[in-house]
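Researcher: Re-running this chain for the archive, since the previous output was lost when a drive failed. Same request as before.
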Amino acid sequence: MIPLTTTHTVDTTFDHRRCVRFRGAENAMRILTLSRDCTLDDAGNGTSVHALSSELCRLGHEVAVLPCDTEPGAAAPDCQWLDHSPAPYAQAARAYFAGEWLPDLIHAHDMRSGPAALRLTDAADVPLVLSVPTTEPDEHLWPRSSSEPTIDPRQRMAMRRADLLVVCSVAMRRKIAAAYRLDPASIEVLRHGVDLKTWHKMPIASTWAGQLYNPDRSPLLLTFGRLDEAAGVQDLVSAMPLIRRAHPGTRLVVAGDGSYRKTLCEQATRYGLAAVTTFPGELNLADLRAAIGAADVVVLPGQPTCDSAVLWTAAVGTPLVASRAGAPAEVILDGSTGRLCQPGSVADLADAVSAELNDPALAQAHAEAAKAKVRAEFGLRAIAERSAELYRATVHRYRTAAGLLPRGT
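Model: Regenerated structure tokens:
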């Protein structure tokens, strides 16, 4: 996946800090990517990192993706080049430290990789791009028992020293800017790209999922993601009696795991929904795609700061109902590419879901419009091109500020 060019070597008579010679295609860059999560078997950050890196390579850039283990309790976090890493990773690491493969920019795709990336950018004298995944402030850095965010000092230093800070939505930008007292204008919004080769409807798999979750072929609703109070699934469970009154037999699948799962199971039982509500736990990418394809409507009732679930659903082509607050409202046009509802309003949520179930043809028209929008604006190629533009602008600003010679001088 990582096409490292081995036919070129750095001329050591040139100071790489003052004269960067780009390799590969014209205007190509060498990008060193760090990620704590490099797994490919789920819908986590690692999958997004690999997909974006692959697309950047297809655009002609040279990209090395290096797994970075930076446990928060470590006294001196640093890059760990894992022994089981694919050969190109280990080769890239060795070449980098031998001065044979020098990046033009380093991109840390999560805050826990930030301190290690910062040390590498200082050593190489190149700019740092730092991404803040949507789960990190909630899951690791902002305990719900605290009114203030908590963050490792080394990670805070990486955040403040990064040459470019990247988040995936306007909602996330507002949240990060307020939490860490940053200028929102200094934070760039870069949407997650959708791998259209992966996220599309698979008829056979969707049929199998339908038989599994909906054997009587009643209307089927799906919600998925991390199960906590902010996900708003409790509102969907509360709305189910109203939805079932209008559409008898409607079933619900709640895919995912989290601290609120037990509470939701108990709530479903209290509402007499245990027999028509399924909690399959976390699904891998293939099973999640199949479940989305089998659903009549995907419902995302919370206020997420990430738009991935919306984009995946739209790419598969399933009608969507989501909260008017948060990232979904930045992508969905109410009544055109889906339906939006007021967060926390059980009645409004039930009405929006029922409206989609009432008119399957109109719901499918919304889904097709959403699919076309995703293909045009959120495909991996478009996001990779946008990433390359941001990288190039960041390198230019960094070198101009430092008084370094322009490329090719």
